[in-house]
Amino acid sequence: MPRHMSEQEALAYIDTAPGWATLSTIGPDGYPHSIPIGWFRVHEKIYMGCIDRTQKVKNIERNEKIAVCIESGTTMKDIKGILLRGNASIIRAPEDRLAVSILAAKSRGVEEKDLPKEASDKGAYIELSDFKITSWDYSN
């Protein structure tokens, strides 16, 4: 039986988990649309960068409910992960995208002099806040 992580453990796991997350949105046909995506966390918000007008963005515009799964491990003895569920929003305004791009760069340790000066023309960010956390940890 897996152990559930505390909220602090789950948030620390979000910050340190390797690899990609799986973002699930609801497609126009009512079925889940799940894709790999990069992420980072700032305070109580999760950000995922993407190209604007892709299927995931269109799905969120139609139905803001999303799920994000982050998992690591290779056997039942070391699998751990989290499922985040909540309502997403799309960040499109150039000044807002630049602000999030700077947050992303800072989270990766980019020096102040090398921070982005402008946001890409085709990009957008998905923002998840006020999410519920479900966790599992088979490693203990």
Report on the architecture of this protein.
A hairpin with a 2-residue loop joins strand 3 and strand 4. Helix content is 23%, strand content 41%. It has helices at 7-16, 55-62, 94-107, and strands spanning 21-26, 32-37, 40-42, 45-51, 65-72, 80-91, 123-137. The chain has a single domain, classed as Electron Transport, Fmn-binding Protein, Chain A (Pnp Oxidase, Chain A, Roll). The model has no long low-confidence stretch (mean pLDDT 95).
Short description:
By secondary structure, the protein is α+β, with helices and mostly antiparallel strands. It is built from three helices and seven strands; from the N terminus they run αββββαββαβ. It has one domain: Pnp Oxidase, Chain A (Roll), CATH 2.30.110.10.
The overall pLDDT average reads 95
What CATH calls the topology is Pnp Oxidase, Chain A
Total helical segments: 3
Radius of gyration: 16 Å
| CATH architecture descriptor text | Roll
Biggest sheet descriptor: 7 strands, antiparallel
Distance between the termini: 10 Å
What is the CATH superfamily? Electron Transport, Fmn-binding Protein, Chain A
Give the fraction of residues assigned to helices. Answer: 10-25%
CATH class assignment: Mainly Beta
| Portion in strands | 35-45%
- Helix-strand sequence: HEEEEHEEHE
Overall tally of structural domains: 1
- Give the overall shape, derived from the CA principal axes: globular
